[in-house]
Design goal:
The structure is a homodimer. The first copy, chain A, is 64% helix and 0% strand. By secondary structure, chain A is an all-alpha fold. In chain A, α4 (49-73) packs across α7 and α7 runs antiparallel to α9 (141-157). The termini of chain A are far apart. The model of chain A is unreliable at 76-91, 97-105 and 187-192 (pLDDT under 50). The interface between A and B is large, with 57 and 57 residues. Chain A binds a DNA duplex through residues 4-5, 27-29, 37-41, 43-45, 48-49.
Chain lengths: 252, 252
DNA sequence: ACCTGAACACCGTTCAAGT
DNA sequence: ACCTGAACACCGTTCAAGT
């Protein structure tokens, strides 16, 4: 009746489980149960829990590679509409100006931008992935291949190997589509909704600047559709800050 | 004979254990053994393992606060020597030029730079801290206080609340003195020493740009004292990229 | 007030055994 | 070739009991 297990089936069940209930729910016993099998059966297809986690990272990297290849296929169309997009890129003045001045000098930036944002879309589907990737020790081969690709784009754009090397470090985890989120200005314990007047008042006593920032940002908000901390905007702002900063190091 | 336990003694024993054997060795039973006590005794002083980890983060943040206060006390002396320092800052051309053009317009940058580098020194003493901080869910109060401080410096320097907010996001984990290290160009399995000629040749076939970068960086190396991947240089390069990029958004 | 022993539920994993 | 049952070592944690 039921076909035999395989590494692929185990991995995709693991991804599904992590997506649905978080990586904390991913135990050998639970995963086996989801597959209608005993925990020990998994060891026939995988070297153990650690190998399972390596496989998860591998799977996510493969998804990113697919996503990036797709941006490549449609890069011309994307680039043409980038400057006119509403809401996100258009709000980072720095990038806008560069695109206006533009010609084809912005090519390398648009390409990397497209890749990193495509990776981000993958990460949004797998919220457990950043923490997992961040704690893995072994660097998967697929990651080297990806960095090789980024490096190729940088070298071709006219960067020296030294600056390209530093750029890779500066990008941090952005090529994989995420940044470390240490800080959310909404203190833990409060709701997801906007802070109340009283909460801001209480906060103002001890942390006046943070309180003022919260107040100002709520008041300034041009587009009410976007929440208090719209990570997409922040991600793109940081990305453009880095890309535009690096542009100055390019050789012609 | 032996004085009773306390939350402080437990925490400092935990820090010592993590420093010496890594966070993986930090179990309730092991920590208790180090303190000459049974595992269950710890629960009298701490709410549990999770509370212990919260306490560790708290301890590290306190160390950072102390380190930052010290930079404040000697900030004038530091700033005067920053441009002439050998090896690190002087190699990031961008920062050098700004300091030369300088006057006091670089003040906010030097201040934040000093803070973040002081935090980095703390992290180097506690290599387990970045991974721990990155996975904690609750944002400790001390972190809010720290961000309040950074925000104050930014506002005083003339940034709008909106840009200051984005700057906080852009800094990522740099205020805590670390960046996510996903990528070390030395493939896992190779030694810490420089890659051999054959290794580079083999690498060149499949990843030409990475291989060329390794070769170029080794050849170019102006200062043979520094290794292939000197994180200090990379940290400061990225930091200056962000600080100098933000400078353009400052009001007067 | 401070610490302990025994026990529980839950891990990942080994190993010999089934079909 | 593929899966299983029983067992082991190790977690964090509860709870009643000691002093």
């Amino acid at each position: 009746m039921r076909e035999p297990l395989s590494r692929e089936r185990v991995l995709s069940a693991a991804v599904a489980l992590a997506d649905k209930e978080g990586i904390g729910a991913l135990t050998m016993r639970r995963l086996a149960a989801d597959l209608g099998v005993e925990a020990m059966s998994l060891y026939y297809h995988l070297p153990g829990k650690d190998g399972l986690l390596d496989g998860l990272v591998e799977t996510v990297l493969a998804e990113i590679t697919v996503a990036i290849d797709e941006t490549g296929a449609t890069s011309r169309a994307r680039r043409r509409t980038a400057a006119g997009r509403t809401g996100t890129a258009s709000r980072t003045a720095i990038a806008d100006r560069n695109r206006r001045a533009g010609a084809s000098s912005g090519d390398w930036r648009d390409q990397l931008r497209g890749w990193f944002l495509a990776a981000r879309a993958v990460m949004l589907r797998h919220p457990w992935a950043p923490a997992l990737i961040g704690t893995r020790r072994r660097v998967p081969d697929a990651l080297y291949a990806y960095y090789e690709r980024i490096l190729g784009a940088l070298i071709e754009a006219g960067f020296s190997h030294r600056i390209a090397h530093r750029a890779l470090h500066s990008f941090g985890s952005m090529p994989l589509g995420f940044v470390q989120e240490l800080f959310s200005p909404t203190p833990a314990g409060t709701t997801e909704t906007e802070p109340s007047e009283e909460e801001i008042a209480a906060m103002a006593e001890v942390m006046p600047h943070l309180a003022a920032m919260v107040a100002a940002e709520m008041h300034d908000a041009a587009d009410p559709m976007l929440g208090w901390c719209d990570s997409q905007v922040e991600f793109e702002f940081t990305l453009d800050l880095l890309l535009d900063g690096l542009e100055r190091f390019r050789n012609t």
